[in-house]
Specification:
This protein is mainly alpha-helical. It is 63% helix and 4% strand. Helix 17 crosses helix 18, helix 24 packs antiparallel against helix 25 and helix 25 runs antiparallel to helix 26. The two termini are 64 Å apart.
């Protein structure tokens, strides 16, 4: 937007006009500076936090997901299970969580607090800046008293974020249609092929679309007659050779104007030879080789002449100036953005001719070009440079994108693996242009007629993987259970197709050499494991490899890798291993609030509550407004039976995030432990107002209702929880406890037995049976089952038993007291 604005200013000579976009952008940049310098409390912030803020506003706002939404309404503060790397940047923040954090900062920071217009700009920068951009276009047109037409040529090359901005923001949400401003989109593909354009509600008065079209036979003949070609046989031959394409017909006209006689006798096979008439053998070879180039200059031509055996001897290399001057003056070459390129149609013809007649040499030329751009990238940053340094350099990213493009054409399986490796690395580092640009280049060039330019395996992979890479690459690092498609349409891929597309990438991970990209790829594979043990087993090799590749990363990237791995290990319930990863993340960045918070979460699950309390307090000291920190502090205090302090911390978390479902539910759990059942029920009801389908809130409500003797409603509610999450054995055990409180002991025991059968290593089934027997006064089986629960989860089981009235009848029994005292 900024570049387009500057171009319009220069072309219309209105650079000094105080227009809306210039003013709005200045406000935007000034606010970013203030937000990235000091905290809400006015203290200087650390460089990592500053970078997080500037990256969000300058880059990530263009990369926010458009096709997905999470399937859970839980706040990230309370649930990190199922998380993947897509939600993480190199500074270890998830997209949704980072956005919430930024929003909180904007609302409370002195630079933006109580400034509603500035807050609106910082909370919705793309929409606000686009409105200002549209106002500026109108201002420019009115100041010059002439219409303004913006032409977007070769639009098939536009990357997805630019395409989305155009239809969603500029065309859909601005009043440009009623102003003297028009947009012309020129490209090979119909805009209506894109779901966003099809859903556009504009009347399209603002935008005119034109495509590459072919003349029908009669139109071709009429055109040829207008330029003086009258013979019927010649008309038929030209129509057959040119296929009605205006480019070729115009070229025929130009050659006639120059007095050149053209030979159309070879029919359909003649177009390449036709274009190459009157060109000597070496010049033809140069055109074929240069046709491999997306663009070229004298340096690239010299490199090819010196290294490509197809072009001949050293003497030819010494004539580079002569050949380059000839190319500059060629009918097929155009100057574009300070470099030269073959016109699209001519390039298509010459590349097809090259691959048809010299397939191996065509691959070799592309491999040479790949090596050239790899060397250009290596000259900027040595291959062993620590990540993410090269990825943060725009020039390096451009070179590596060119390298990948040519590798895909020229290096077969090796090129394919290089591309896949970069997909995982660049996705993790949030630099999708690295893999997105080569894909966009190829898609813009490909048609049914020229798919043979790519190796078959490469073509298939790009077709299969292209679904997710084009639609939304963040799916790669998301668990399939954690997202759903926001909108559906004729060309919108289903979730099944997206996952199949991702699997086409993941199928190659095992062939990658040990590297950062392979580590990320293995993380993505682990996300798609269906069983916890399978996930845990698949993550252990990743952990070992991460320890090796982290030596080649800057601390913030290594921190992010271990943080991501820690989150996945928590999802797999491998808490010891996750704790190790979080500790490594903290060693790399002791200021990481998220790492301290998640370390506390792991410690809570390991029943190391005192350490969890310390970690939570560290997080709060670093960021007093950390909802996560207060939540885990409350959990730790609750587990230490310091219930009143826990309530205070839960209230702090809820005050910071009033819509937190689990915040209210956990508050209800603590109030239940204090036997304040009416208040506990009110807290659960508040949680269910926010999300009526949250099973944990339903389970908590059901248990409280059973204490209030509303057994019928309690059973109905726990059944809802079981229906929503049947794999959660604790809900089945809780159903048994509720039935026992209702006096339905046989059914109660049966439910607890089902929980044990479902997961014999989970404490809840045994704890439930202990409650059932205790309520019946059956001391031995009650204590025996409670002992089994304590053996599996000692501190949790003891804590629950101490405050649970179900055990009042056996509380004075020596064995019960012994079980409680041993903790």
């Amino acid at each position: 937007m900024r570049n387009l604005h500057r171009q319009v200013q220069d072309l219309m000579g209105v650079a000094k006009l105080a227009d809306a976009f210039t003013q709005k952008e200045q406000q935007f940049e000034a606010a970013i500076f203030e937000l990235s310098q000091t905290s809400v409390a006015g203290k200087e912030i650390n460089p990592e936090e500053a970078r997080k803020i500037t990256n969000w506003f300058q880059r990530f706002i263009w990369l926010t997901p458009t096709g997905i939404t999470t399937t859970s309404s839980k706040s990230k503060s309370w649930d990190i299970s199922g998380s993947g790397f897509a939600a993480l940047t190199a500074i270890a923040d998830d997209t949704e969580g980072l956005q919430e954090w930024i929003q909180q900062r904007v609302r409370h920071h002195p630079a933006t607090k109580d400034k509603p217009q500035l807050q609106a700009l910082m909370l919705e920068p793309v929409a606000q800046l686009t409105q200002a951009f549209a106002e500026s276009l109108v201002q420019f047109a009115q100041s010059r008293e002439q219409p303004l037409v913006l032409v977007l040529d070769t639009y098939e090359r536009a990357q997805s974020y630019l395409n989305q901005w155009l239809w969603q923001y500029l065309v859909e949400d601005t009043p440009l249609a009623s102003a003297p401003v028009r947009l012309v989109v020129v490209g090979r593909q119909k805009l209506q092929a894109d779901e966003g354009w099809r859903k556009l509600h504009q009347d399209r008065q603002l935008l005119y679309e034109t495509q590459l079209i072919r003349f029908i036979k009669e139109q071709t003949k009429n055109y040829l007659k207008q330029i003086g070609i009258e013979k019927g046989a010649t008309l038929d031959k030209i129509n057959k050779v040119t296929q009605g394409l205006p480019y070729y017909l115009n070229w025929v006209r130009e050659q006639r104007d120059k007095g050149k006689e053209l030979d159309f006798s070879q029919g359909n096979q003649a177009i390449a030879k036709l274009l190459l008439q009157d060109i000597d053998v070496q010049q033809r070879k140069i055109l074929l080789v240069v046709a491999c180039c997306r663009w070229f200059n004298a340096e690239i031509l010299r490199y090819l002449l010196e290294n490509d055996s197809f072009l001949g001897s050293q003497e030819d290399a010494e004539r580079v100036e002569v050949y380059f001057e000839w190319l500059e003056n060629s009918d097929f070459v155009e100057l574009s953005q300070d470099c030269y390129r073959l016109e699209d149609v001519a390039r298509d013809v010459f590349r097809q001719s090259y691959v048809k007649d010299y397939r191996n040499q065509f691959r070799h030329t592309n491999a040479l070009l790949a090596d050239y751009f790899k060397q250009q990238a290596d000259d900027l940053f040595a291959p062993q440079t620590l990540l993410p340094d090269p990825y943060e350099d725009e020039e390096w990213r451009e070179h590596i994108a060119e390298f990948l493009y040519y590798s895909l054409f020229g290096k077969g399986r090796e090129g394919l693996q290089q591309y896949i490796e970069q997909v995982f690395v660049a996705a993790f580092l949030r630099e999708p242009a690295v893999f997105g640009a080569p894909l966009a280049f190829i898609r813009a060039e490909m048609s049914e007629e020229n798919r043979n330019l790519l190796p078959k395996a490469t073509s298939k992979l790009l077709e299969d993987a292209g679904i997710v890479l084009r639609f939304d690459w963040r799916f790669i690092g998301q668990s399939p259970k954690s997202y759903k498609i926001k909108f559906e349409g004729e060309n919108t891929p289903s979730k099944e197709k997206i996952e199949a597309s991702i699997q086409s990438l993941l199928g190659h991970v095992g062939y990658l050499e040990d590297c950062f990209g392979k580590s990320v790829g293995l993380l993505c594979k682990a996300l798609r494991c269906n069983r916890l043990r399978e996930m845990a087993d698949s993550l252990l090799p990743v952990k070992r490899q991460a320890e090796q590749v982290s030596a080649h990363c800057r601390p913030q990237v290594a921190h992010s890798l271990f943080f991501s791995l820690g989150n996945l290990l928590i999802s797999a319930e491998s808490y010891e291993d996750s704790l190790d990863c979080y500790q490594k993340a903290i060693d790399l960045n002791p200021q990481s609030v998220d790492a301290w918070v998640n370390r506390a979460y792991a410690l809570i699950n390991l029943e190391r509550y005192e350490e969890a309390l310390e970690s939570s307090q560290t997080a709060i000291d670093l960021e007093p407004q950390s909802v996560n920190g207060w939540a885990n502090r409350a959990e730790a205090l609750d587990s230490l039976e310091r219930y009143k302090e826990a309530l205070e911390s839960f209230q702090q978390a809820i005050d910071l995030e009033p819509q937190s479902v689990n915040g209210w539910a956990n508050r209800g759990h603590t109030l239940r432990n204090l036997q304040q059942y009416e208040e506990a029920l009110s807290a659960c009801e508040q949680a269910l107002k926010i999300d009526p389908q949250e099973p944990e809130s339903l389970s908590c409500q059901a248990l409280i209702l059973s204490f209030l003797n509303d057994f019928e409603q309690a059973i109905a509610v726990i059944d809802q929880a079981i229906t929503l999450k049947p794999q959660q054995v604790v809900y089945k055990a809780n159903r048994g406890i509720i039935l026992a409180r209702a006096g339905r002991y046989t059914e109660a025991i049966a439910n607890c037995e089902q929980a044990i059968k479902q997961d014999p290593k989970h404490e809840s089934g045994y704890y439930g049976k202990a409650c059932c027997y205790a309520l019946q006064g059956e001391i031995e089986p009650a204590i025996n089952n409670l002992q089994k629960a304590i053996e599996i989860k000692p501190r949790l089981s003891r804590r629950e038993a101490k405050s649970n009235p179900d055990f009042d009848s056996i509380r004075d029994e020596p064995r019960f007291r012994e079980l409680m005292d041993n903790g």
